[in-house]
Amino acid sequence: MTENLYAPPRSEPAPQVLDGDDVPPFYIVAPRKFWILLLSTAGIYQIYWFYRHWKAQKAATGERMWPVMRSLFAIFFTHSLFRRMAAANDSAARPLSIHATLFVVLTILDTVVSRMAQQDIGSPWTDILELLLIPVLGIFLAAAQNQANLACGDPEGSFNDDLTAANALWILLGFVLWGVIVFGLLAYYGVIHTEG
What we know:
This protein is an all-alpha fold. It has helices spanning 31-40, 45-61, 67-72, 78-89, 93-118, 125-151, 165-188. It has seven helices and no strands. α1 packs across α7 (165-188) and α4 runs antiparallel to α5. The longest helix is centred in the last third of the chain and has 27 residues, at 125-151. The N and C termini lie far apart (75 Å).
């Protein structure tokens, strides 16, 4: 009898934590570097963060998956990734599950607030709320990153602590983005006059 291709999966494959010289099961990054990249890029770094974790999982476990899709549609895969991180440490399963749920709920809220801001509903308060959500979302990702670093045997993330030239480029582009955001808010409040 053939397997029903339309049936939901029976269970998620258990993550495989590898030892020694094998591929690390998760993306390692130091807390300092994580926060610098997340905040300087106005939260855009989280897409790359999810991508690198799923890429590491694919390499470590050999599972068939598309890391790009799992990072672009992160809210559908956040619980799965956080569960893998908790399972790799055999601890913190419940807190990471709560972090995953809060991250997903606040990401959906962020999307709604962003749509409202684009339609000039509640602006500039929706713009400000959207900016305030960046570090809040970062708190949940940072908790997961701590578990990922532990699972890779590098609790401080010292393997990936230095800022590279590529990081500097992203930080520079992030500062340009922040400049546009601040300029837009100041113009909205009338602090800066944009009309000639």
